Amino acid sequence: HSVVAFLVGKKLPSKSVKQFLERKWGQVGSLTIHIAGNGVFLIWFENMQARDWVLDNGPWDVWGYHLAVRPWHKGMSLTMGECKSMPVWVKLKGVPIQFWNKVGLSYIASVLGKPLHMDATTMNRYALLFARVCVDMNATSSFPEYITLELEDGSTTAIEVEYPWHPGACTLCKVFDHSNRSCPRVTRRVWMP
Questions:
Q1: CA distance 71 to 96
Q2: CA atoms within 13 A on the CB side of 147
Q3: Domain segments of the chain: what residues?
């Protein structure tokens, strides 16, 4: 019944973030927020429906900063370390109906990274305009706009990929923690008159 959450690229006071999340997510169900340190939070929900609602209704932000949310699992590290991958919500448009199931959508989304979960509308096939899938994407990803899918008859179709939120990454360090502009490895040249 838990998730791990952390702010991307910004450290805000833990107490303020905790109060913000309690107000925002506490309306859905009872929860307990534990501060794990270094901007990482372990959030326990009293019921699975509340946890799933939080996962399904992302992406989330706190005062304009992206909050990455992942389902917690036994043995999962509660330290951020180098952020080489990030859960990103994607919209897949033009998915053939025969792929509109967990296996088919996971197969398509796996081109982008590791599929984590789908929102309830996608899972229940309420609207077939696009599928919303949360994918753990690498910082080295090119974030393609299209995926070419080969069909059973040998023909191909293009699946459009839309990113409601696109994380900035450092191409030098290949991490999401910071951008190229704030990279500690870049030597800055200062002009001296």
A1: 28
A2: 23
A3: 2-71, 82-193
Q: What CATH code would you report for 2-71? A: 3.30.70.330
**DSSP state for residue 175 in the 8-state scheme:** B
Token couple for 33: 């927020």
Q: Where are the beta strands (DSSP E) in the chain?
A: 2-7, 31-37, 40-45, 60-62, 65-71, 85-93, 114-118, 130-138, 146-150, 156-162
**pLDDT of amino acid 118:** 87
Task: Report residue 101 CA to chain centroid gap.
Answer: 20
CA distances from 19 to 8, 31, 34, 47 (A): 18, 12, 11, 20
Q: Do the bridges between strand 65-71 and strand 60-62 make them parallel or antiparallel, or are there none, so unpaired?
A: antiparallel
- At position 193, the amino acid (one-letter code) is P
Q: Which residues of the chain register pLDDT less than 70?
A: 9, 79-83, 177-178, 187-193
Going by C-alpha positions, the residue among 104, 103, 108 that lies closest to residue 91 is 108
